[in-house]
Write a structure and sequence with these properties.
By secondary structure, this protein is mostly helical. The chain has helices at residues 3-20, 27-50, 84-100, 109-128, 132-141, 143-153, 158-186, 193-196, 203-220, 229-236, 239-264, 266-271, 273-292, 297-316, 321-352, 368-382, 388-403, 405-430, 437-440, 447-465, 468-490, and strands at 60-68, 73-79.
Length: 491
């Protein structure tokens, strides 16, 4: 087993062990075991970056073992400059989620922690799988633990939200399965994704494959108009569920565009780029305006996530290095920022048991340390320079300027609406006079909450001030991907 297998199976096996530990009698041991497993899983991923050769676009840390030999299905793993940072992001966010649920979750703690660890391993599997069937198995398997997390530990309408999440994402993925089977037959019985990239496919077949993948990945991102499951899922999910959903699970769809849609159906991707750009701009502009009228903090940040992910898909389909790299950077930065935003809402909800903006006011007077973190993350959500939220969006807008000035101008309005809804929430929740007795009785964050917010604050500022390690790692892989798409067009 190589590093990638350990990164996948260590959290999955640890989660299974926690599930077997029984009910809440061993709650202290369960929490510490979950934390140690999460930290160990994160430490395993660090050599992937320290040992990564950013001069090549080839897959690194590869593992290839026969799995289902009759159908030539292999357990094949590898990472390149596009996927390697997402493995680290997944493991890092899992550590944060375990810390976040430490005192908040008091019932079925072993099942809660176990579900998150298993989900973490499955998501790493999605980012590292180089076999089409293996990718599909991991991609679909992530639905199960998240469905359970929302359905068991969620809010009053948790069952409705969990079903909606499950059905939307499952139905979209069924067309992808048809596409995977077609590519298996077309390639002479191979599920090797890298071999699929080289298949000479006629234009009409590419279009059908493109929309089959689009059905799966657009729901997962989620793109407008198949986004309606996300606000419901976020509002009903427990804080940890919202963090993982926003920080990692939305990225699975965007990653799918880079690994499947663009390289396998490059001509169709170019032909339908205008369609994707239009949907992305609607997400950036219209969903930004929808976020402006939200009264529930979680719904506001959920709609904000859809708008920010609009920048990602926009960047991918303007077909230049700045745009694609900017989209990937935006995925990573959104993982830090949106996760932090949902954790801040969770901190307030644990104390007041309300997510309504109107139920707060003047929180800075009673929780000054917490407000400092919350405002930092809000500024990152606005895209303030020197925070992670700025880098990706700015790169995408610069890339869009190179492609088409009017697309860039429309995308830039998203920065304005983003600042408007975020600052409106900050003003009403955190500043001004103390709003009511609930706010007056609030206590500032404890050391556990300080630790999880401080870790994310460091990540947000580090990426904002010094994004070079992120962009350097992905540069060659992005360049190679665009070269492949352009050459296919010439052929």
């Amino acid at each position: 087993m190589g590093l990638l297998s350990v990164a996948i199976w260590l959290p999955i096996v640890s989660g299974a062990v926690l599930l077997a530990l029984g009910r809440d009698q061993q709650v202290g041991a369960v929490r510490w075991l979950a934390l140690m497993a999460a930290i160990a899983s994160f430490l395993v991923t660090i050599p992937l970056i320290t040992g990564f050769d950013s001069r090549t676009a080839a897959m690194q840390f590869q593992e290839n073992l026969p799995w289902i030999t009759r159908f030539n299905v292999n357990y094949k793993l590898g990472v390149d400059g596009i996927s390697v940072w997402f493995v680290l992001l997944t493991a890092f966010i899992t550590v944060i989620v375990v810390i976040a649920g430490w005192e908040v979750i008091t019932k079925r703690v072993n099942q809660y922690m176990g579900a998150f660890l298993i989900l973490s391993g499955l998501m790493v599997g999605v980012f590292t799988a180089l076999d089409g069937l293996l990718f599909y198995v991991f991609f679909e398997a992530t639905l199960i633990p998240m469905y359970i997390i929302i359905g068991v530990w969620g809010g009053p309408n948790r069952v409705y939200a969990a079903f909606k999440f499950f059905l939307y994402t499952l139905l979209g993925s069924l067309l992808m399965l048809v596409a995977v089977i077609y590519l298996y037959i077309k390639s002479g019985g191979s599920f090797d994704i890298l071999a699929w990239h080289k298949l000479p496919l006629p234009a009409n077949v590419q279009v059908l494959l493109f929309f089959a993948f689009f059905a799966a990945f657009s729901v997962k991102v989620p793109m407008w108009p198949v986004h309606t499951w996300l606000p419901d899922a976020h509002v009903e999910a427990p804080t940890g569920g919202s963090v993982v959903l926003a920080a990692i699970m939305l990225k699975l769809g965007a990653y799918g565009f880079l690994r499947f849609s663009l390289p396998i159906a490059p001509d169709a991707s170019r032909e339908w780029a205008g369609f994707i750009i239009a949907l992305s701009l609607i997400a950036v502009i219209y969903i930004g305006l929808v976020a402006l009228v939200q009264q529930d903090m979680k719904k506001l940040v959920a709609y904000s996530s859809i708008a920010h992910m609009g920048f990602v898909t926009l960047g991918f389909f303007i077909f230049n290095e700045l745009g694609v790299a900017g989209g990937i950077v935006q995925m990573i930065s959104h993982g830090f920022v949106s996760g932090a935003m949902f954790l801040c809402i969770g901190v307030l909800y644990d104390r007041v048991h309300s997510r309504q903006i109107a139920d707060y006011g003047g929180v800075v007077n009673t929780m000054p340390k917490f407000t400092a973190f919350a405002v930092l993350f809000a500024m990152a959500n606005c895209g303030l320079p020197a925070t992670a939220g700025f880098v990706g969006e700015w790169m995408v807008i610069l890339g869009a300027v190179k492609a088409n000035f009017w697309i860039a101008l429309l995308a830039a309005t998203g920065l304005v609406s983003g600042a408007a809804y975020t600052l409106w929430m900050v003003k009403r929740v955190y500043f001004g006079a103390v709003g009511n007795d609930h706010v007056k009785e609030l206590t500032d964050i404890n050391s556990r909450e300080f630790l999880m917010l401080a870790l994310l604050a460091v990540a947000v500022l580090w990426m904002g001030v010094y994004p070079k390690p992120f962009t350097d790692v992905m540069q060659v892989s992005v360049s190679e991907l665009l070269k492949h798409v352009a050459m296919s067009k010439l052929n």
